[in-house]
Amino acid sequence: MSEHVTFLGLGAIGLPMALRLHAAGLTVTGVDPFPDPRERAAAAGLTTAAQPLAAATAGTVIVMVADGAQLEAALTGDPSTDTPGLLALMPKESVLVIMSTVGPDAVRRAAESAAAHGIAVLDVPVTGGIAGVKSGTLRLLASGPPAVLESRRSVLEALGTLIDCGERVGDGQAYKAVNQLLCAVHIVAAAEALSLADRLGLDEESVLAAMTAGAGQSWMLGDRGPRMLEGLEAPVASAVSIFVKDTDLVAEVAADLDIDLALLPVAGRKFAEAADAGLARRDDSQVIRTYDPK
């Protein structure tokens, strides 16, 4: 296969992912329509472009955009700005890797469109955030044809650990939906617990240390708890806006299945409250401010 990778989407997590591929020795072209992320990428040594023309010679195209609408736009292009779509550019037998969290239906529609152009699709949403990319502990929830997945294993494993979610495109997104349900609920539960400790007049740092050593521990409490106590200037590893989007996405999946997820609406409401309070771009740990704004 061509060792050239076109990486579309140089946002908060996309840029470090593209740079990690570059550091692994792959030829990477980072694509983003906005100049600021392109400038940051170029400053870090990455070849950049505003349009995905490099996809015409790429063996692998990775898409890390915000939502399903952006995925569709990336595939079909935008005639109003003369931006070509990936499906018109990518050569036959190349592989489109969708790493955005967009839900099973969006990825399956993309796979159908790509198949008509002779392009294979891998559904590989990720979990672990920016910290996971930088530490090499990102987990890639991969689904798709086994032979195609195997052919791109070296590219994907440069980003983290592959979790085989099965042959059906869309099942990676289904795994991610389960993951995001757990993450959203656990973050809000951690925020609620530390807020209760504060209202009880306890030292929150002492409570956090005690809880992370006991039966109430969760990965999210240990990871987000310190940033909750750090306050609004906590470094952004994953923004509030991501969980606004993802709780809505999980709710759509649940509605299609007619399953009552009792805790999801509570978590979704708290993230929405945080976004409405002007915290959309802050670290998701700052959902704690909806309990006791400081």
Could you explain how this protein is built, in words?
The chain is an alpha/beta fold. The chain folds into 2 domains: 4-167, NAD(P)-binding Rossmann-like Domain (Rossmann fold); 174-291, Orthogonal Bundle (N-(1-d-carboxylethyl)-l-norvaline Dehydrogenase, domain 2), CATH 1.10.1040. It has 13 helices and 11 strands. α12 (240-257) runs antiparallel to α13 (264-279). The chain is globular and about 65 Å long. 46% of the residues are buried.
* Number of distinct helices: 13
Quaternary status:
single chain
Supply the CATH class of the largest domain. Answer: Alpha Beta
User: What is the CATH superfamily label of the largest domain?
Assistant: NAD(P)-binding Rossmann-like Domain
Structural class assignment: alpha/beta
Parts with pLDDT < 50 across at least 5 consecutive residues? none
**How many structural domains are formed by the residues?**
2
CATH-defined topology of the largest domain: Rossmann fold
How would you state the average pLDDT, rounded? Answer: 95
SSE sequence, one letter per element: EHEHEEHEEHEHEEHEHHEHHHHH
The number of distinct β-strands equals 11
Distance between the termini: 53 Å
Largest sheet: 6 strands, parallel
Residues in β-strands, percent? 5-15%
Computed CA radius of gyration, to the nearest angstrom: 20 Å
Strand order of the largest sheet: 3-2-1-4-7-8
The 3D shape can be described as globular
